[in-house]
Write a structure and sequence with these properties.
Layout: H1 4-26, H2 40-56, E1 62-66, E2 72-77, H3 83-99, H4 103-111, E3 136-140, E4 146-153, H5 157-172
Antiparallel strand pairs: 1-2, 1-4, 3-4
């Protein structure tokens, strides 16, 4: 049976041995940055926590996890959540990864109506998947490496953001 923890250790040991050999051969110091963007099981754990939080709040809700490139790892929705909720949660996560920030921050800094003439139109950026509304949460490793993002849809902007932060805390504990 595949053990992801043991596999990471094998890869880390290989990387260390390779860097040592490279230094001996070339005199150059080689640094290997290894990223584990998350497994499907981890994604489901985070999504399940977000969906439970939504159910507790009596929301029809969808939640997604994307990888560092913005590609979908997993998405699920509660009974009654719409196809639009599903699409929106994936696009919020995608937007967070592509802009390297939470979508709440993106909306408030660039797209909020209160910015008046300084407000931007998201369509200017040429990607129809960009979704500058609350609920896209960027996930980073302690060293700052982008690991992916969460997206949520089905509540008010504040509820989407709150449930996303619950998911981010679950992710951080994995």
């Amino acid at each position: 049976q595949f053990d992801p923890t043991e596999n990471r250790k094998i890869v880390q040991d290989f990387n260390a041995a390779f860097a040592k050999r490279w230094k001996e051969k070339t005199g150059e110091t080689l640094s290997v940055k290894q990223s584990h963007g998350g497994s499907g099981k981890q994604a489901r754990t985070v999504i399940d926590a977000m969906l439970q939080a939504a159910i507790d709040r009596k929301l029809e809700f969808a939640a997604a996890v994307v990888d560092p490139g913005g590609e979908l790892i997993a998405m699920a929705r509660t009974d009654g959540a719409s196809a639009l909720n599903a699409r929106m949660c994936v696009n919020k996560a995608y937007t967070a990864v592509k802009w390297l920030r939470d979508t709440k921050v993106l909306k408030e800094r660039m797209f909020d109506m209160s910015l008046g003439d300084d407000r931007r139109d998201i369509a200017w950026f040429g990607d129809p998947r960009f979704t500058a509304v609350w609920g896209g949460i960027l996930l980073r490793a302690p060293d700052g490496t982008v690991l992916g993002a969460l997206g949520e849809s089905g509540g008010s902007p504040a509820q989407d953001e709150e449930i996303g932060q619950i998911g981010a805390r679950v992710f951080a504990g994995l």
